[in-house]
Amino acid sequence: MSLARNVFVQSSLTFGSRILGFIREAVIFAKLGAGPLTDAYLTAQQFPNLFRRLLAEGAFAQAFVPLYTRSQAEEGDEVATRMATETLSMLFTVTIILSLIAQFCMPWIMMVLQAGYRNDPDIFNLSILLTQITMPYLAGMALSALFAGVLNAAGRFVLSAAAPTLMNICLLIAAFSFNEPRMVALACSVATLIAGILQAAVLWFGARNQGVHLKFRLPRITPAVKDVAKIAVPGALAASATQINIIVSSSIASFEAGAKGWLASADRFYQLPLGIVGVAVGVAILPRLSRAMSKVGSSEDTHRTLDEGISLAMALTLPAAVALAIIPFFLIDALFGRGQFDASDSTLAASALIHYAWGVPAFVLVKVLAPAFFARHDTKRPMQFAVVSVLVNTVLGAGAFFWLRGQGEYGFPALAAATSFAAWLNVSMLWLTLIKRGDYKPSGLLISRMLRVFVSCGILGGFLYFANDYKNLTQTYLWESQILALIATVAVGGILYGIAALVTGAVSLREIRNAMRRSAT
């Protein structure tokens, strides 16, 4: 399949899952609102969200797939399957041990994650309980990531992209089953654990259908396991910089009641282009880069693949960033502004979303550039850059947060701004290193394409600015429905951007046709 088609398949399924995720979050926020109880629930979701994005959404796969692919090509399917089986057994054992340790250490862990609630025993203890319930999700995600890596190496992206839908379904069932807020939080935490088990089972079945029969064995530290760990562990850490920055920001936000809810609602919007575009392009581009870099004289193929990946990612991401920056309140209030989550909550969440918006291109570019390192089995350099970005995010975010609090202002928007700044710093380090090593240099065609994307985004931005001013008028023609007004605005804006992109040459009809059909490449 072509890169464009692989991205199209991955993105389409991820888009469906993310839309269902918006519905899920709208229901949960409507029942919980933004406050201490929501902060406790969101704290319990931090580990599942981190491990899902760290493992299932490409980070582990980006490190595992090159090794698995190389083993298949050089030593055959049998040796590759044995390597995967040994990795599976060790990975499962390690994650179970980590989960058990976390259960016992949760009160001390919560002293970091919920530092702002140390003097509120009710919320603090509830945070401990809910997180203990969700923590074993780690084991399910670890298994899911390995099975998904096996499927992706075979060019099968459908099941791994569709599996996260199970999480949304489980949480929706739990949220609709209760009305009392505390029971909703408890039920959704249990549903998270159940979803992790179901996802692992479905992906295991998919790998088995591909003829890859993975079994659990007594864990042993074999040479294959050492090779995977040496590359996968720093690789996973490298690809998780943005997610770790979110954990850090959320921990600091615990000193401001309700801030976790406002940040989380804004987070859902920028995670949409990150999951649909960034993860999809990163997962689809890695096998091609691995094959290209394994050949002698592969620089042309490598440069062309990265050009194509960056061009495609930015053409799809920049218009989303423009929308998040120009109509943040419209977006949040239309989707989450109901029940316990009122207009003041939407206003505060929008102030964070504006700062996430200018970081969106960077969040996506990290996913596109990191595979160029992973394909060469270099995960230490991206890990070092990730550590730098986390440190910068922590220092800037904490400093600005407490300074604003001291001025009598809300501090949480500074946490969003620090996360975006850290992401751009990470991108700069990755990009400059690739250029310095001679692994990549943007072509004139890419630069020309980006200028056309900017022009198209400018047209979109002008329309959205106008539409935001007249959103109330639009709403009156759509049965006073704010959500219908938003859908209409986004639909017209998307069509307008699409036309502008075709007219300016930011995208071509040939690329669209290639995305819709199978290719031998």
From TrEMBL:
GO cellular component entries: plasma membrane
Keyword field: Cell inner membrane, Cell membrane, Cell shape, Cell wall biogenesis/degradation, Membrane, Peptidoglycan synthesis, Transmembrane, Transmembrane helix, Transport
Similarity comment text for this entry: Belongs to the MurJ/MviN family.
Pathway stated in the Swiss-Prot or TrEMBL entry: Cell wall biogenesis; peptidoglycan biosynthesis
GO molecular function, one term: lipid-linked peptidoglycan transporter activity
UniProt-recorded name of the protein: Probable lipid II flippase MurJ
Annotated membrane topology: Multi-pass membrane protein
